[in-house]
Amino acid sequence: MKKMVIAHSPDADDIFMYYAIKFGWVGKENTVFENIALDIETLNTEALKGTYDITAISFGLYPHIRSDYALLRTAVSFGQGYGPKLIRKKETVLKKRFKVALSGKYTTNALLFRIVYPDAKIIYMNFLEIEQAVLDGVVDAGVLIHESILGYDESLEVERELWDVWCELSGGDLPLPLGGMAIRRSLPLTSAIEYESVLTKAVQIARDHKETLSKMLMERNLVRIDAPTLEKYLELYANDESITLNETQYKAIELLFDLGYKHGFFDAKIDPRDFMLPLEYNELRYS
Fold this sequence. Notes:
287 residues; alpha/beta; D-Maltodextrin-Binding Protein, domain 2; carbon-carbon lyase activity; EC 4.1.99.29; menaquinone biosynthesis
């Protein structure tokens, strides 16, 4: 039996999209899937090292690892009218060089933030620590991500929605690309295509059996939030648009990469369609 480790974040959307595999509802012959849950910036950093064969990443990281990893079409998270939030204490007035906590250098939210706030003094930390850092005055502001956007201390308020930043930069017609999955290019192509198929089926099954799977996750204490919040959160970041990339999402990722290149964060302008697994390979191989 071959062991395949899938690295993902401990956030409710990633847990939801992966656990159809963990519970044995979908799989691959002669393969044992294992998972490791790490915060998104740790996943991004490990992807730069090539640590995991299959890993969740921020779209803001991908151009840096394009030579070693292909993008997968499934288990994607986009914002549509929502996304990370720049928060501060209600009485705080942010100066030009304000100190801010971000969840990691290679996250999509950091890319957008650095484009519009080039003079801010950035401190990177685990996203679970950001709200408290703002409350304690360690930083003047912080960007909340994941479940944190759904509820925070009443003494805090939103300075700016990164969705609004994205709309200003993109023209406002496209969803905000946040996170996806990548697979190591050194894997045999036929195997990589099969792994992508398994992951796609897992997300499809999760959506088809959302109520049952959500209940199982809650009963086993596999998510950090309560049932009503989980329901709301999954409709944001693990919805029907997460199953497989559509043309609008491709355009959004391409624009994100273009913005990163234009502002000097990436070394080349790339089209995400050129970095997907060639699913037609098997058909051509056996034709």
